[in-house]
Every structure is written in structure tokens, then in C-alpha cells.
Amino acid sequence: MRIPMTEYLEIDLEAERWQCRRCGHDLGSARANYKEGTLVHDRDPREIHRPLIDPARYEFTFAPDPAWCRILEYYCPGCGTQIEAEYLPPGHPPTYDMQIDVDALKAQWAARGAGTVIPLGRDVTAEPLRVSSGREAPA
Ligand SMILES: [Zn+2]
Questions:
Q1: Of 36, 46, 81, 105, which residue is the least packed, with the fewest Cβ within 10 Å?
Q2: Is the pLDDT of residue 7 over 70?
Q3: What is the pLDDT of residues 57-93, one digit of tens each?
Q4: Cα(79) to centroid of ligand 1, in Å?
């Protein structure tokens, strides 16, 4: 069973692997950081946040200083979809933003029916879970 975790990430519970939701590319162990399986673009933040005033005339231009800030973009090696982006000091390792308890996730999904649907995107409601098999969603 594949469990959606973000717009572009899912976990294959049987294999315990992160996968791209667009192309199914394997991104590594679900017990590790999915970012280890991605392509990383280490960007100069001035490419994204251009100076608001003339950098030839002023030391501070309202653009982030690349000596203090980098933008790391993470892409799927299979399809090129951008999965995540984060702002970090130069040289800082990628953050560990999702640490999934795989055993608890397996136990949670073992109790759900095959027709379980997780609403995503604009269909998100106060109900965290809809079950098409007629069973009530857990509170
Ligand atoms: Zn992909």
C-alpha cells in the first residue's frame, strides 16, 4: 500500500521506501531522510530574491547575503519534479523535516480498508479521513 505523505512524496509500506508520487522513483528508506535520494540544487538566494536597490551603490540591497543563506532545492531524479526547498546557512546539511514512525504507520493503515481515501489539495476538509467502504473514520 502506498501512503501519500506530501503532494509529491509517498511511502510504500510493504517495501518501507520513499517514492515520488509523480513517477514512482525510489527515494530511499522510509526510515531515513527522503532528501538523500533527491537531486539537490544549491542556489544563490539572490537568484530568487533580486536586490531591490542598486548593488553597485549600496552594500545592503534587501537581497539575502549568499555568505549567510543558501536555498536548497530538492528534485526527483526520475521526473525532475521539485519536491522541497529550504533556506539554510551555507554548508548546513539538509534538514530532517519528516521522521516517520514506519511501524506505527503500518499499524494505523492495517486497520483501514482498501478504499480509504486521504483528501488532498482543495478537497481537504475538517474530516481527516474518508472511508469509502462505509466504515466510520477514526476520531
Ligand atoms: Zn519523480
A1: 36
A2: yes
A3: 999 999 999 999 999 999 999 999 999 999 999 999 9
A4: 4
* Predicted structure pTM score: 0.78
From ligand 1's centre to the CA of 73, what distance in Å? 14
Distance 28 CA to ligand 1 centre (A): 13
Between the CA of 25 and the centroid of ligand 1 the distance, in Å, is 5
Q: How far is the CA of 29 from the centre of ligand 1 (A)?
A: 16
> 44 CA to middle of ligand 1, Å?
24
73-76 CB contacts, 8 Å cutoff, 24+ apart: 73/40, 73/41, 73/43, 74/35, 74/38, 74/39, 74/40, 75/38, 75/39, 75/40, 75/41, 76/8, 76/20, 76/22, 76/23, 76/25, 76/27, 76/38, 76/39
